[in-house]
Design goal:
Helix content is 24%, strand content 34%. By secondary structure, it is α+β, with helices and mostly antiparallel strands. Bound molecules: adenosine-5'-triphosphate (ATP). The site of adenosine-5'-triphosphate has 11 residues, from helix 3.
């Protein structure tokens, strides 16, 4: 018998209960220790029906372990898991994995080779033969594979098999879908198509999705919310736009793109650099800061007889660099500069084709509204 989340029944007025929808999935203060290391360290999050949250973080940060605890194949040392407000697992009470209404999709999905597509999809379904057939047909139509209903998996392409694995996981109408790098075995173009298609089917079915990935592009493409994980903890959580544009620290910026970092010392709430002054309010005098800017937010100007553009309020002062390397990347060009002021390398991304010759001097400025200032850590 499932138990209610105490927060939903204790200390909340009737009105508050009506106006606060129940999350489809809620995990609270999950912890898992292996040896002397907290691999998952006080992780909490909620996901509403039809929403996708991506657990994004580097290899080994504890993403899969979190997923495995929610699925019920790994026991947490402490913390609770609720599905639709009902407790499914704490340290004494535990609903077995098969009764949690949770679907799983992993990279190494395996279809049953001796079963037809229809039988594969119907595998976890209950009900009459007709009911099962109706559900199988409905889902196969949704992913454009109705024509393959009587085929065996080996005649299908990798992408088609992936779609079948998805609908098999979705067939029993799981309330939650846990996905662990499910698209990493696919080539790029196919992956984009299948990602988008998967997302639309999951949303149509109102499933709450927790997707684990170490690829920022995948998280940005799929997620309503990104939970950035590092060393077992969720360090930042929010809509992709906010995580990208208001990152927590230098490491969070560099997780999404290349970065340029300029170190300086704050004095009187200002930090002086070769690119002019940056406002560093609240930073103690003498404390070091990193000014961090993504390569696409550097502005380039031509050299005019050894001089660059005049300083402005929005872009500060220009610093000169000499082109070290320029590469065309498809939609944009990546230009690397060796900076005159200290010989360091800075990277700029320019739309379309911009391939100046090696040795060309250019002037770089940093847009004040597109850079981040963090206390220096290393
Ligand atoms: N059963 C286990 N016993 C001991 N250590 C484990 C066990 N399972 C996982 N770990 C360790 O816990 C850490 C986190 O593993 P986890 O698989 O959760 O990371 P991850 O973020 O999903 O990484 P990846 O993206 O590489 O899959 C790793 O250092 C891993 O070696």
């Amino acid at each position: 018998m499932a138990r209610k989340n105490p927060m939903e029944t204790i200390g909340h007025s009737r009105e508050a209960k009506v106006s606060t929808p129940t999350p489809r999935l809620e995990i609270r203060n999950l912890r898992r220790r292996f040896g002397d290391r907290d691999v998952v360290d006080d992780v909490s999050l909620t996901i509403m029906p039809g929403h996708v949250t991506c657990l994004l973080g580097p290899s080994g940060c504890g993403k899969s372990t979190t997923l495995r605890m929610i699925a019920g194949v790994e026991m947490q040392d402490s913390g609770e898991i609720y599905v639709d407000g009902d407790l499914v697992c704490d340290t004494v009470f535990r609903i077995p994995p098969e009764r949690r209404h949770i679907g799983l999709m992993f990279q190494d999905f395996a279809l049953f080779p001796h079963m037809s597509v229809a039988d594969n999809v119907a595998f976890g379904l209950k009900g009459s033969k007709d009911e099962k057939r109706t559900r199988v047909e409905e889902l196969l139509r949704k992913v454009g594979l109705y024509r393959a209903i009587d085929e065996f998996p080996h005649v299908l392409s990798g992408g088609e098999q992936q779609r079948i694995a998805l609908v098999r996981a979705l067939a029993p109408r799981p309330r939650i879908m846990l996905m662990d790098e499910p698209f990493s075995g696919l080539d790029n173009r196919l992956r984009d198509d299948i990602r988008d298609e998967t997302l639309s089917v999951l949303k149509e079915e109102d499933t709450a999705v927790l997707l684990v990935t170490h690829e920022p592009e995948e998280a940005m493409r799929m997620a309503d919310e990104i939970a950035l994980m590092r060393d077992g903890r969720i360090v930042q959580q929010g809509a992709p736009y906010n995580i990208y544009n208001a990152p927590l620290d230098k490491a969070a910026v560099s997780f999404f793109s290349d970065i340029n970092a300029i170190r300086g010392k704050s004095q009187g709430a200002l930090t002086d650099t070769p690119f002019g002054h940056f406002l560093t309010p609240g930073v103690a005098d003498g404390a070091e800061v990193d000014i961090v800017v993504r390569p696409q937010h550097l502005k380039l100007d031509f050299d005019r007889a050894g001089k660059g553009p005049l300083p402005t309020m929005t872009d500060g002062t220009a610093a000169r660099g000499v082109v070290e390397r320029a590469r065309f990347m498809g939609n944009e060009s990546l230009v690397e500069f060796r900076m005159d002021y200290d010989g360091s390398i800075m990277k700029a991304i320019v739309p379309n084709v911009f391939l100046p010759s090696v040795g060309t001097p250019l002037w770089l400025t940093i847009r004040r509204d597109r850079c981040f200032v963090f206390p220096a850590k290393d």
